[in-house]
Amino acid sequence: MTRAIVIDTDPGQDDALAILLALAAPEALDVRGIVAVAGNVPLPLTQKNACRLVDLSGRDDVPVYAGCARPMVRDLITAENVHGNSGVDGYDWPQTKTPLQDQHGVDFIIETLMHAGVGEITLCTLGPLTNIAMALVKEPRCVRGIREIVMMGGGFFEGGNTTPAAEFNILVDPHAAHVVFTSGATLTLIPLDVTHKALVTADRLAAMAALGNETGKACAGMLSYFNRHDVEKYGSQGAPLHDPCVIAYLLKPELFSGKKIPVQIEISDGLTLGMTVMDWWGTTTEAPNCTVMRHIDADGYFDLLTTHLARLP
Length: 313
Ligand code: BDR
Ligand code: CA
Description:
The protein has helices at residues 13-23, 43-57, 80-83, 105-115, 130-138, 168-172, 174-181, 192-195, 202-209, 214-234, 244-251, 298-309, and strands at 3-9, 29-36, 64-66, 100-104, 121-125, 146-152, 187-190, 256-261, 263-265, 276-278, 290-296. It is α/β, with parallel strands linked by helices. It has one domain (3-309): Inosine-uridine Nucleoside N-ribohydrolase, Chain A (Alpha-Beta Complex). The strands form 2 sheets. Strands 4-3-2-1-5-6-7-11-8 form a 9-stranded mixed beta sheet, with helices on both faces. Strand 5, helix 5 and strand 6 (146-152) form a beta-alpha-beta unit. Helix 1 runs antiparallel to helix 10 (214-234) and helix 4 (105-115) packs across helix 5 (130-138). The longest helix is centred in the C-terminal third of the chain and has 21 residues, at 214-234. It is globular and about 55 Å long. The model has no long low-confidence stretch (mean pLDDT 97). Bound molecules: beta-D-ribofuranose and calcium ion. Beta-D-ribofuranose (BDR) is lined by residues 12, 14-15, 40, 79, 82, 126-127, 152, 161, 167-169, 242-243. Residues 12, 14-15, 40, 79, 82, 126-127, 152, 161, 167-169, 242-243 line the site of beta-D-ribofuranose.
C-alpha cells in the first residue's frame, strides 16, 4: 500500500534530490502535494524551484503550493552562499511549465489533514518548519490527520552548521520548531548527526552523472555545485546530502537507527538560539517526544537514491 505524504521544502539542491526521490517512487509514496517555504532562498525562488523539479520528473499530477514567505517571529535568514542565487545552481534550468496552485500552502496542509482519516498523512519537512507550525496554530484539530512528521533538522553530537549550536532549518524558524516539537504529533528527526555521514563523494557523484537521463545530468550538476562549499567548509570528501534522508527513511527505514528521546528547542535569544536540546542519555524526567536518528547505512542510501533517479526522464 502507498503512504500518503506532503513534502514541505525550501529547494535547495539537497531538497531537489529529495523531491525527485519521492516522485520516482509512486509504488510506495502517494505525493499529495509539494509546499514551498522560505529558507535556503526567498519564497519566490523556492516555489519556482519546486515547480522546476516537478517539470524535470514528468510528474505533472503533483500540485505545488506556496506557503509562508518569512518565519513566524524572526527575520528570514537565507543560504545563497551554499546553494547559489537560484537555490538550485549547477544546472541550466529550462522555462518553468508547472503552475503554482492558487490556494495558500498552509491552507492546503490544513485541508489535506482535516479531510484525511486519523493518522493518514505523513508530513516530510526539508526546510524551516514555518508552514507546519502555522497550520497547527491556525487549525489545531488538524493534528489528528498526521501519521508522522519526518524532519531533516537539528544536530546534537555534531553541533550546528549555521551557528555552533544550531542547524539551519531550526535556526531559521526556532519558534515554528517549538510549536511542532510540542504538538503531540508523532515526530521523527534526521539531524546533522546522520547527514554528516552521508557524503557526496566523487564515486557517488560519478554514479549519478553516468545514469544517462536528464535527471542524472541535473542531479550531478547540482551536486557538483553543492559540493564546492561544504568540501571547503568541512575539509571532507563531499557535502552531506541532508534532505533525501527523509524520503529514504520512508522508503527503507532499516537504513537508519536511533531512539525515542525528549527533544526541546531553544527559543531564547543568545548563543544557543535554535539548538535542538536532546536528552539522549535520559538525564531529565521529560517525556520522549521524538525518534531521533543517529546512524545511517550511507552506501545503502546512495544506492537507493541512484537506482530511483534512474527511473525518471
Ligand atoms: C539543511 O539546510 C539547508 O541548507 C539544506 O537544504 C538542509 O535542509 C541542512 O542544514
Ligand atoms: Ca532544505
